[in-house]
Amino acid sequence: MILIAENINVMSQTLGLAMKERQTQPIQNMAKVAQQAGMHYIDLNIGPAKKLGAEMMPWLVQTVQQVSDLPLSLDTTNPEAIEAGLKLCQRRALINSVSLQPERLEHILPLVSRYNAEMIGLLWSADGMPRDVNERCLLAVDLVFKANEAGVSNENIWLDPIATPISGDISKIKSCLEFLQMLPEIAPGCKSIVGLSNVSNSTPTPLRPYLNRVFMVMLKRAGIYSVIADAQDTELPLLNCEERTELVNLIHQALDDEDIDIKSLSEEEVKYVKTARVLNGEALYSHAWLEG
Ligand code: THG
Predict the structure, then answer these.
(1) pLDDT of 199-224, one tens digit each?
(2) By CB distance 3.0 to 4.6 Å, which of 31, 142, 146, 147 could disulfide with 64?
(3) Using a 6 Å CB cutoff, which residues line ligand 1?
């Protein structure tokens, strides 16, 4: 499974400021963290960047490429910024967050073809977030058709059903997993990706890694191709590369609602079991789900 580092993001308090002030050090430190952690791509998210995006993105691409040879994923709604970044990418680039708004597709899809890039299609349209798996599938078919028309073939399209916070509706998390199961039929050859941290958004910070890790194990079992995730959580690459087989098996057991002898587990293991039960809908989410 491919891991994309999400950390170089304009929403981050420290790195957002570093981007605006063009400080290379904090950005390069994070790029090194991502590479050393074993991430496979680095996402560069500059937000809408309406005014200065076409200067910010190429600066960011060069800043990161000075210390890392990982391929980059470029994320902004500003097409000039995307193109300015693509021109400098030394490896084949991904264009992130290609949603179904017509004006966005019109400008971005030709760039995917022209620069021989790949794209992440976000299943989000002018009508907003899809409500269930059927709406996600309809959006996927529509997006893939339009991308194909612009010369982008299925193996260069990564589809993102968009994960939502656990504090919201749990059925939305289920429909992400259902979408992954349907993907080979509705869009053969397309890849899949989900943002892990979306699920733990607005939950207590020290507990976020449990949600992110268990969610990753769930998605991996459902056959996902890639996740975008926190490079500072060094457990994620270990869980991904079979170095935590016992823990992964325990999480699978909990997800399958098998009988588990809780008393035989360590405190840490119990946290994973409880988190799995919340994520599969067996237990209700509350900010204190690990207590009691
Ligand atoms: N799919 C795709 N791209 C995405 C997402 C997705 N890009 C954006 C997002 N989701 C993934 N990236 C982040 C980046 C940061 C955080 C969450 C997801 C995050 N940041 C801390 C917070 O908000 O509390 C702040 C960190 C800081 O200040 O440094 O949670 O789903 N294709």
Answers:
(1) 999 999 999 999 999 999 999 999 99
(2) 31
(3) 6, 9, 11-14, 45, 75, 96-97, 120, 122, 160, 162-163, 193, 195, 197-198, 201, 228
